[in-house]
Amino acid sequence: MAKNFEQRIPHYTGRVEAKLDAVLPAAGVKPSRLHEAMRYAIFNGGKRVRPLLVYAAGECLGVPEAPLDSPAAAIELIHAFSLVHDDLPAMDDDDLRRGMPTLHRKFDEATAILAADAMQPLAFAVLADVDGVAGEVRAKLVKLVADACGSTGMTGGQSMDLGAEGRSLEAAELEHMFALKTGALIHASVMSASLLAGAVPPEQSAALDGFGRAIGLAFQIRDDLLDVEGKTEDIGKTAGSDERMNKATYPALFGIEASRRRCNELLAEGLAHLDALPEAAALHWLARFIVARGK
Predict the structure, then answer these.
(1) Closest Cα to residue 150, out of 185, 186, 113, 101?
(2) How is 142-182 classified by DSSP, letter by letter?
(3) CATH number of the domain bearing residue 223
(4) Of 54, 111, 164, 200, whose CB is crowded by the most CB atoms within 10 A?
């Protein structure tokens, strides 16, 4: 296998996409329009950052690739489910996602809602069926992802995001929202490998926990910057949509330079946590990639 993590990315994205292809019903299976929409939501591009974090953390802890495929695929299903809902007219009302029409534009709103609704339980079915893993570990994986995407995780963060439109938030309040809206699922990506690794020393588990939380925040702040500084054709969605929706974002509330500084602070914090981990080069590379996106 290639020594550089960047060179291993096609291998890992190939693995997770093969797993997703296997668990998603074929487009021709009835109800075919629903299944076609689910596949459109999953196979319309994307960098697969969350699955890559699963595999990178697995490398760090010496977890075999095969059991990592399930949380990698499940978390990507949850991520796709959230994007479909976020893009709906009742939420962010976006027309583009990854440079292509959003699901409700490609199909219709009802189909988009149903496709997202179907991807969420499918994710938990995948987690409940990890081959060669004890039932107790599978249950912990289900709880980890459920907590990350529920009302005290991603869904709660999205609710806070909608409620914050047009408001001025303190930095701590904004970062709490980001930790739920975006950070929770990124954190779960990293910690899923820890559950599969078995008896991880407490200092290593704490290091992964701290890394996941710091990088999850950095990811969202970098997204906020891309919405301001990026071009639609480069970022794959309509640039400036946060300003149009009067969103509470880091650049809007604290400015571009403060946002860049905070991103770099969080990167340094995340990388410092990795000092307690063996073979953390893959996580080092991904953390830097997350903060450098779009530059």
Answers:
(1) 185
(2) HHHHHHHHSTTTHHHHHHHHHHTTT----HHHHHHHHIIII
(3) 1.10.600.10
(4) 54
Q: What is the pLDDT of residue 259?
A: 96
On the CB side of 130, CA atoms within 13 Å amount to: 29
DSSP string, 74-112: HHHHHHHHHHHHHHSTTTT--SEETTEE-HHHHS-HHHH
The series of mean pLDDT values per 10 residues for the chain, 295 residues long, is: 84 98 97 98 94 97 96 98 96 90 97 98 97 94 98 96 91 96 98 93 95 97 90 69 83 95 97 93 96 78
Nearest to 120, CA basis, from 177, 77, 157, 160: 77
**Is the separation of the CB atoms in 116 and 84 below 8 Å?**
yes
CA atoms lying within 13 Å on the CB side of residue 11: 12
286 close to 56: Cβ distance less than 8 angstroms = yes
Joined tokens for residue 226 = 């891309």
The answer to whether the beta carbons of residues 58 and 280 sit under 8 Å apart is: no
Q: Under a CB-based contact definition with an 8 Å cutoff, are residues 104 and 176 in contact?
A: no
Report pLDDT digits (tens) over 1-27: 557 899 999 999 999 999 999 999 999
Domain count for the chain, please give it: 1
> What is the domain range of residue 227?
5-292
pTM: 0.95
Distance, CA of 138 to CA of 22 (rounded, Å): 19
User: Does an H or E element contain 259, and which?
Assistant: helix 256-273
